[in-house]
User: Fold this.
Amino acid sequence: ALFVTPLLKNLPEDSLRKIFTELGLDYDRNVLLVKSNRDCIADAFTNDVFGHIPLHHQGFLDRNGNLKRLMNLAEQFVRHPDQNDELSKYKQREFEISERNFRKDIYGLLQRIAEKDAAASETEKETEKKSIRETLIAHSGDSDDNTRWIEEIYPQVRDDRYRILLMSSMKLLEGRRIITGSGPYLSPDWLANKVVFLDEFDSVKQDMKKCIINSTFDPQADYDPGQYIPVKTNILDLFDYVSRALLDMERRYPSDL
Assistant:
């Protein structure tokens, strides 16, 4: 299931966690709050997750100095999150660029591991190169090429693990699957077989306008490998799905319901 709201602070996480506890269920294993990529990096820095990256992976990721740059920018963002002067805005843009390059480097690292796996395989079938997702999963518990740290920084790379996803409306409208997936969240393939709850749907209109404007001026600003699908088309499809569902409910259920 997918629960979407205009503001993440409106999410009833505490209440939901309490319900899971009362039912004897592990909240953290079943529910994922899909945060912005920037917040993922900030959380990872705060919790020292970068220290979990194997040294030889760090060498690959920092071959152009981007990992150290990202760490420095993350530290500034964590220490001064609310500054809004011109210098801070410049640093935020630098942070976003460095974070995007970091994800590209992770993708390249996983490609290299997949190629090494294929070269080391003895059977013809095993020499077929694994997908990025398969490589991530296969090495999540290795002692040498352990990739568990990737999921610790970006939990959404394994969103298939969770029964409930919590997400902002802008993340759904404008966000893209990263590293192990491609394309936007707002696509038939990703939304297939999901029950979607839209909180305060009327107030999402401003987010939709902003999203359309952004996609018009910078349609592939955060491009990941995979086919690009225009955001405007997806939003129109979303309205069409909602309209069809409401009309179907009117036909199938009594008006007093």
Summary: The two ends are 23 Å apart (CA to CA).
